[in-house]
């Protein structure tokens, strides 16, 4: 069933309907006579009465909607003549230009929709459309009609995009009326006005529904305004439950106020973030300065410690060298003195033997002289001569003993080493035994001197042991510091190995073969697929050669006082160079030198901290510096995020 909706019919107008019709008839005649240009092309039309309108081109249906909406508008901003001109334009389009010449229309944009309406005109918000004259039928004593989802799908297919369609029911059932809800934003307003204009263009708008002289068929629809909201019927009751009356200006002002508040809140948040960022930068600078100072102090302490260790080692080496040289010199002197003493002892033994023989001869001579009855004077003279010779020999022996005593005293002053003192004591004891056999007791003093020398030698040995103990202590401390530095270096290598840092300082695998020269060499002989396979096989073979502990193609030679590693004339390397070229040979020899220098005993690949810019082993300080730099970059990125 189709139920009528009551509306108030009072409208304020400045002129009578007859004057509006006169203006419209006059404008229609001008359009028919071609005084105003409407059609630009088969698809483009223009409104001759809106010369200042931003959009100059319309499609047929768009221009018809534009003319109908302004001609029927109740806005006070439009003059009577302006409305009459647009009524004439709508009539001209419907009666004088066939509809088939126009292409499909597209929904008007938001700017056009807002421009066609007065900012003070009141609408029901959220945007609501009203559909009336919905066909109904009686079923089980109640009126029924189309569901809201069917109506919504129908309107969506026409491009109006409603969010919901609610049929209105009363105690008799379906009232033949529905409320169409649109989105709350400006796109929803645009869809709602397109919805209204489409029905007006098809003469199924609100005015057409309220006209009393026409037969009603099909749906009639329009956008809910003040009259609908205040109506005392089922539509008015539902509109007052779900919406309010608001002007476009009010809605725009509220949106501007919300936007301003949002901008203010965001500005405050940004300022707070800036203050926090400045505070974090200050803390970072303070921490960085403190860390740099600590690293500098550590480096200074480490440098001072190394210099002190070097001084102590140099002093210990010099002292040990002096002691060793003195020991060798004294040892040589003692060997010489030993030979001299042995020679003197042999000579004394010979002389002693000779004296004994001479005495025997003298006794025999005396006996012979006594037997021969020689004169006593001759015997006395001969005896006196013999005594003189014996005294001379005794004086000579005493003089030699004094010289030997002086030499022993001189050796006592120069003696530092334990071995030399023991050797001299043994020599002196041997000499004393000789002297004891000769019956001379004056050498007891020499024995006492030897004991004093032995005591001094023991003191020197104690001093040498103390220096050796100090040297061992310093060596142990140095090894502990080196172990700590090596552990720190290993941790640094492991840390840089896990990070993708493309800088001049990084981790290099020492002794690893570069596969690119092998691949380039194979590409010159084979196609791409076979070259890849063969280069991999050849590279793997030479990796096994490098690991072989029995292969020694490198020897160490002394060049200008320095030991350097050089290549031998190795058959494997020579064949490699002749077969695959200089680049493959250089790659193998480079890996060979690296593994010989950094891991000669293990012959396997090790990781090392490397300065790629200078081509050398990087220092621990350089590694720490690059790690700090990477940390700063990561921290700055996290701050930006």
Describe this structure in words.
This protein is α+β, with helices and mostly antiparallel strands and 641 residues long. Helix content is 64%, strand content 10%. It has 18 helices and 13 strands. It has helices at residues 17-32, 60-71, 80-96, 110-115, 148-157, 186-201, 206-210, 226-230, 234-242, 248-371, 376-414, 418-438, 444-498, 515-523, 528-547, 571-580, 582-598, 620-640; strands at residues 122-125, 128-132, 136-139, 142-145, 164-170, 173-181, 220-223, 244-247, 505-510, 554-559, 562-567, 606-611, 616-617. The chain has a four-stranded antiparallel β-sheet. α11 (376-414) packs parallel to α13 (444-498) and α16 (571-580) packs antiparallel against α17 (582-598). The longest helix is centred in the middle third of the chain and has 124 residues, at 248-371. It is rod-shaped. The model is unreliable at 1-15 and 100-112 (pLDDT under 50).
């Amino acid at each position: 069933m189709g139920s009528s909706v009551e509306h108030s019919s009072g409208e304020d107008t400045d002129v009578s309907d007859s004057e509006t019709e006169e203006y419209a008839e006059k404008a229609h005649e001008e359009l028919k006579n071609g005084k105003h240009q409407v059609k630009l092309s088969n698809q483009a039309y223009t409104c001759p009465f809106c010369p200042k309108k931003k959009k100059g081109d319309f499609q047929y249906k768009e221009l018809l909607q534009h003319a109908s909406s302004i001609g029927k508008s109740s806005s006070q901003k439009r003059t009577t003549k302006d409305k009459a001109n647009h009524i004439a334009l709508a009539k001209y389009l419907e009666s004088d230009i066939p509809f088939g010449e126009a292409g499909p229309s597209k929904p008007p944009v938001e700017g056009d929709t807002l421009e066609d309406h007065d900012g003070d005109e009141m609408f029901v918000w959220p945007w609501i459309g009203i559909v009336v004259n919905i066909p109904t039928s009686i079923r089980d004593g109640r009126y029924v009609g189309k569901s809201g989802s069917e109506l919504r799908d129908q309107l969506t297919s026409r491009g109006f995009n409603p969010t919901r369609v609610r049929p209105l029911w009363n105690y008799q059932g379906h009232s033949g009326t529905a409320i169409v809800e649109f989105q709350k934003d400006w796109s929803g307003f645009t869809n709602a006005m397109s919805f209204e204009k489409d029905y007006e263009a098809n003469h199924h708008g609100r005015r057409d529904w309220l006209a009393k002289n026409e037969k009603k068929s099909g749906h009639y629809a329009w956008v809910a305004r003040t009259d609908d909201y205040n109506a005392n019927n089922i539509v008015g009751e539902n509109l007052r439950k779900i919406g309010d009356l608001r002007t476009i200006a009010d809605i725009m002002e509220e949106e501007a106020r919300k936007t301003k508040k949002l901008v203010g809140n965001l500005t405050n948040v940004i300022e707070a973030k800036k203050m926090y960022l400045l505070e974090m930068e200050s803390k970072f600078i303070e921490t960085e300065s403190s860390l740099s100072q600590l690293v500098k102090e550590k480096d200074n302490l480490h440098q001072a410690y190394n210099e002190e260790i070097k001084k102590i080692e140099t002093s210990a080496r010099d002292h040990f060298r002096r002691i060793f040289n003195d020991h060798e010199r004294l040892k040589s002197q003692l060997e010489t003195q030993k030979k001299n003493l042995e020679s003197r002892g042999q000579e004394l033994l010979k002389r002693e033997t000779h004296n004994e023989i001479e005495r025997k001869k003298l006794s025999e001579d005396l006996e012979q002289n006594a037997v021969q009855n020689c004169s006593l004077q001759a015997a006395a003279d001969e005896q006196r001569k013999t005594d003189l010779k014996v005294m001379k020999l005794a004086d000579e022996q005493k003089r030699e003993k004094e010289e030997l005593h002086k030499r022993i005293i001189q050796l006592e002053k120069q003696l530092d080493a334990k071995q030399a003192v023991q050797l001299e004591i043994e020599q002196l004891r041997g000499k004393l035994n000789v002297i004891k056999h000769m019956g001379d007791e004056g050498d007891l003093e020499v024995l006492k001197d030897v004991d004093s020398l032995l005591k001094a030698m023991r003191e020197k040995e104690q001093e040498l042991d103390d220096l050796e103990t100090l040297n061992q202590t310093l060596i142990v401390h140095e090894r502990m510091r080196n172990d700590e530095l090596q552990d720190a270096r290993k941790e640094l290598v492991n840390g840089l190995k896990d990070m993708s840092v493309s800088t001049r300082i990084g981790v290099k695998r020492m002794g690893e073969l570069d596969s690119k020269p092998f691949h380039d060499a194979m590409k010159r002989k084979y196609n791409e697929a076979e070259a890849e396979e063969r280069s991999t096989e050849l590279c793997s073979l030479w990796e096994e050669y490098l690991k072989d502990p029995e292969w020694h193609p490198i020897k160490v030679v002394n060049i200008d006082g320095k030991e350097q590693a050089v290549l031998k004339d190795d058959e494997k390397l020579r064949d490699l160079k002749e077969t695959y070229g200089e680049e493959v040979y250089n790659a193998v020899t480079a890996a060979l030198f690296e593994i010989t220098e950094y891991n000669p005993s293990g012959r396997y690949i090790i990781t090392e901290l490397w300065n790629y810019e200078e081509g050398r082993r990087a220092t621990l300080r350089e590694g720490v510096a690059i790690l700090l730099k990477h940390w700063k970059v990561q921290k700055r990125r996290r701050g930006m995020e």
